[in-house]
């Protein structure tokens, strides 16, 4: 006989939902009165899947409904979800959405398959580009005798 783990089953069911449905369910939890044990009740409460549906998440997943009812220990009649149950559901949804938004391993650049050598240190590909950069640098930097520093620079270089 399988040992029941309702929280793990609920988390697995949440992870199986499409991302837009999880986001819609999170919005639905914040916006409306959530119940357990039924789809709707006479006071206007709705189950989390209907709340998601009303907020744009057009998905139907029976395994989520079964996992939610098993986690909450749903009675035969509808009742409002407790604050603890809602906090747990919200935390599971937020964690699942957060993991979905992490970059996948396919997005991470791989190191090159060939040896790089010293090429990454080389700022120029051609010698004439390098010589032009040296000329521009030489023109941009003034020598001490070109600066108007008074006698300090000339006297310092003569010693």
Question: Which features would summarize this protein structure in a list?
Answer:
two-stranded antiparallel ribbon; elongated
Topology of this protein?
Layout: H1 6-16, H2 19-31, E1 35-36, H3 48-54, H4 62-72, E2 79-80, H5 83-100, H6 127-140, H7 151-158
Antiparallel strand pairs: 1-2
Helix pairs in contact: 1-4, 1-5, 2-3, 2-5
Protein architecture, described:
The protein has 159 residues and is mostly helical. The chain folds into two domains: 6-100, no CATH class; 119-158, no CATH class. Helix content is 52%, strand content 3%. The chain has helices spanning 6-16, 19-31, 48-54, 62-72, 83-100, 127-140, 151-158, and strands at 35-36, 79-80. A two-stranded antiparallel sheet has the order 1-2. Helix 1 runs antiparallel to helix 4, helix 1 (6-16) crosses helix 5 and helix 2 runs antiparallel to helix 5 (83-100). The longest helix is centred in the middle third of the chain and has 18 residues, at 83-100. The model has no long low-confidence stretch (mean pLDDT 82).
